[in-house]
Amino acid sequence: MNDWKSRLGVVYSTNPDFEYDNGEAEQAQTLPKNQQKLRVWRDTHGRAGKVATVVRGFVGSDDDLQELGKTLKRRIGVGGSAKDGEIIIQGENRDRVLQILLDEGYTQAKKV
Length: 112
What we know:
Elements: E1 39-43, E2 52-56, H1 62-76, E3 80-83, E4 86-90, H2 94-104, E5 110-111
Parallel strand pairs: 1-5
Antiparallel strand pairs: 1-2, 2-4, 3-4
C-alpha cells in the first residue's frame, strides 16, 4: 500500500494500526459447484407483470456469476442478466434452468 494515490484524502493519522482504505473490496472465493446452494425462483415483482426466472444463492466472484449466467442464457436461448449475486432469466424457465444446473454439476440446486 505504498501507492500515494490510494491514500488521497487522508493526510496523517496518529493511530499506529491505521490502514488506508482505498475502497477496493476483496473478491469472494467461489465455492465448488457441488457446494453451491442455488435456489431457482419464479418472480414477477418490478417487471410490469412479466415472468422471470431468478437463480439466487451463488457464492463467488462476479466473473464466475457472469459466466454461469451466460451459460444459462445461451443454453435456454433467452435474455437475462447476472448481477448482485443473482441471475435473472427472462420467462418461465424454472425446470430448464434447474436441469441445466444439475447437468453442470450444481448438485444442491433446488426449485422453490
